[in-house]
Every structure is written in C-alpha cells, then in structure tokens.
Amino acid sequence: MSTELARPVNIPPRPALLIALQHEIATAEPHMKKIAHLVNRDVAIAGNLLAMANSAMFNLNRHIKTVEEAITLIGLNNCHALITRLMARRMLSHGKMMMPRFWDVSEKRSWGMMYVARQVTNVAPDLAYNFGLFCDIGIPLMMASFLDYEDTLTVANQLEHRGFIELENSRHGINHALVGAMLAEHWHADPLVVIAIKKHHSYEIMSDLAFAPAIRELIAIFCVVDQAIQQHRHAVSIEWLEGGEMATETLGLTSADIDDICEELRERFLSPNTA
Fold it and tell me: Start and end of every HDOD domain (predicted)?
C-alpha cells in the first residue's frame, strides 16, 4: 500500500506516546501500571481519556478516577482507540486542518461506529471506533496538501450522487480514502481497518465474500451511522442512498431495526457527554 499511496500528501509520523503504548500492548502480558504511567506522562491526554471513559457512551455505574481504572473498566483496546483519537485530533486540528465541522462529524462517527458494532455485529468495538476515526481523516490531510482542495469540497457538497472519490482522483490524483488508509497503516491500525478505510466508498464490497466479514460489516456500519449523522444534521446521506440496502442486508437487520438504531444514535448525539 505504501507504494501505491506515494503521493504529495504529508502523512504525520506516529506519535511517541502511541509508539510506546502499542509496543507495551504487543507484549505477551501487557503491564497495566506501566501503560497507565505512560499515559499519565501526558497530562492533557490522561485528562481527556478519563473524561471520555466517564461519558455516556460507556455508561458505567461508577466514576473512573485514574487511568489505570479506565484501562481495567473499559478495556485496554478501547483505551488505545480513544488515545489514538486524542493524538490524531491534537496533531491534525490546526491551521488549514482545523475544520471544526469535520471533527464534530468525525467524533460522532467514531462513537456511532463503536455503539453499532457492540449492538449488532461481532466486530470489535475498538476496531469500529478506529475505522470511524480514520475513514475520512484524509480530508484534513488533503486540505493541508492541496491549495485548491477547499474548492473540491465545495463541488463535492453539491453532488447529488456518489462521485466524491472520482472527483478527488480527477483533481488531485489521489483521494481521501487512500490517504486515510495510509495514515491508519502508518499509525499501525489493524490491517482489516486499513482495508475497510481504503474501500469504504466501494459499497459492492459488502456483498463480496472474498473480503473478510469484518471489512464488509465495517462498511455497512459506516453507512448506518452516516444515515444517523445526516438525519441529526437534517441532511441527506448519500452513503445511505447508495449503500443502505446492502448495509441492511449485510448486518442482517430490517428497516425497522435501522430506524431504531438511528433514533438511538440521534439521541446520543444530543448528549454533550457522548459525541
């Protein structure tokens, strides 16, 4: 993939905290106190992690006071996913990449992906969360790399059908899905997540049994969550118009199930402690 994605887009290096954290997680027996110590060295990240762990999304019946408690109660993999988001937001939400609306939608998508994965699939919630984080993160990276990318977004927002990827390719020789996959790979995301990000606008993948079930389900969840996000914003989800029927079938759900999930997500989006 690295060769295929060799384009003039600046891919930020993996943060030192993430490198150290992933190194410890990869050991045969990760040491929770050591991981907590690593996280606590970054006061801002530790504080934000605790705030997220205590949010309505995890709905715990107790208040988490320490990073070590967070690791124990919400799980090491979930903590890793949350820290990855916090590091990405810190590194990418400045200058031309600030884009407040983008980051708001990205956060809702990550939380929504985690919620739906827990409710209706066998996909690990942390993988779904990371997919939600990285799937469109190529947009701010391209904004920073191409002077006319804002014009591309303006044109894309006027499209009434799928065509964003094709528009990016024609104007810039690369698209946000490939850039997002490149960053995810560079930051050592799960290979299934990397592939799903690269293919997340290729809805036919959902019916292609050559792809792993997790990849097909991640793309299906993406369509469902986008429908809920756009309903929350009183807009139309192009993703759902194009892939909704296949997503419903892939997840083994009914139209009524989808309506219930979207309603629940919209309620959660209204909570300041959720997304």
Answer: 11-203
Residue 92: inside a domain, yes or no? yes
Encoding tokens for residue 98?
């600030």
Percentage of the chain surpassing pLDDT 70? 95
Q: How many whole angstroms separate alpha carbon 53 and alpha carbon 82?
A: 9
pLDDT for 160 equals 66
Helix (H, G, I), strand (E, B) or coil at 64: coil
Contact, 140 vs 90, CB < 8 A?
A: no
Is residue 194 domain-resident? yes
Confidence of residue 272 (pLDDT cuts 50, 70, 90): low
Mean pLDDT, the chain, as a whole number?
91
Half-sphere exposure for 74 (CA within 13 Å, toward CB): 32
Q: Give the CA distances from residue 29 to residues 21, 34, 45, 77, 106, in Å, rounded to whole numbers and listed in that order.
A: 13, 11, 24, 14, 32
- Please report, for the domain that includes residue 51, its CATH number: 1.10.3210.10
